[in-house]
Design a protein that fits this description.
The protein is α+β, with helices and mostly antiparallel strands. It is built from 8 helices and 9 strands. The protein has 3 domains: 56 residues, Arc Repressor Mutant, subunit A; 63 residues, no CATH class; 61 residues, no CATH class. 43% of the residues lie in helices and 18% in strands. α4 crosses α5. It is elongated, with a radius of gyration of 20 Å. The model has no long low-confidence stretch (mean pLDDT 90).
C-alpha cells in the first residue's frame, strides 16, 4: 500500500470538515513522504491545505464550493494538538457574544501555548502568550464578557450590552462568577455585580 493510499484510508474515517495535521499521519510514514502524499492529494482535491502542516477534510457546498472552517475551529484544533488553552480577545469576543456583527480578519487568541501566526485564506489567527491567571477562569461566558468589556472600554458600554450581560450571567453559577471577577479589572467586577443586584 502506498503512503497516499494509507493516508486516504485513515482520513476516510474522519468526519467531513475535520481539521487535521500532517503530524497526525506520521505513524504511517516519515514526515517528507507524508508531506509529498498530502501535496498530491491536495491537487486531486481530496484534502484542503489550510496552512503549513494544517489540513481539512473538505465539505463541498453545491454553490459555494469548499466551506472553510472559522477561526475558532482552527484555533481550537491547534490548541488541542499543543495541549494548550486559548482565550478569544477583542472584536472576536464581541462578535461571539453578539455585541458586534463585525467579523474580524485578524483574530487574536491569548494562550499558554507557543506564540504563532497562522494565515487561513485572507484571515490571520494570532496566538499571544498570556499571564496564566486568566486561564484559571471557570466560565467561558464570563471570560468572553470580560474580554468584550476590555475591548469596549468602561465609558463605551451601552445599555443594550448591559441588558445582554445581565441575561448571560443569569445562567452562570454565582460562585463561578465571584471567582472569575477576581481575574477581571475592578471596573468590570463593579459593573457585573451591579447588574446582578438589579
Amino acid at each position: 500500500m502506498s503512503v497516499e493510499q494509507a493516508i486516504l484510508r485513515k482520513i476516510r474515517k474522519y468526519q467531513k470538515g475535520k481539521i487535521f495535521f500532517s503530524s497526525d499521519l506520521y505513524d504511517l510514514a516519515d514526515a517528507v513522504s507524508v508531506r509529498k502524499a498530502l501535496s498530491r492529494m491536495e491537487k486531486k482535491e481530496k484534502v484542503v491545505r489550510l496552512a503549513q502542516g494544517i489540513y481539512l477534510k473538505p465539505v463541498i457546498h453545491q454553490s459555494l464550493g469548499v466551506l472553510l472552517p472559522d477561526a475558532a475551529s482552527v484555533a481550537q484544533a491547534i490548541a488541542k494538538r499543543d495541549k494548550a488553552r486559548i482565550i478569544p480577545t477583542g472584536v472576536y469576543a464581541l462578535n461571539k457574544l453578539g455585541f458586534s456583527t463585525q467579523v474580524p480578519l485578524n483574530v487574536v487568541f491569548l494562550t499558554d501555548g507557543p506564540p504563532r501566526t497562522v494565515k487561513i485564506g485572507k484571515q490571520i489567527i494570532k496566538f499571544k502568550i498570556i499571564s496564566p491567571k486568566l486561564l484559571h477562569a471557570r466560565s467561558e461566558t464570563l471570560l468572553l464578557i470580560i474580554q468584550s468589556l476590555k475591548e469596549t472600554g468602561e465609558k463605551s458600554v451601552t445599555d443594550t450590552m448591559k441588558s445582554k450581560i445581565k441575561e448571560l450571567v443569569k445562567n452562570e453559577y454565582e460562585k463561578d462568577i465571584k471567582h472569575d471577577l477576581k481575574l477581571a479589572p475592578r471596573w468590570i467586577g463593579v459593573l457585573i455585580n451591579e447588574l446582578m443586584k438589579n
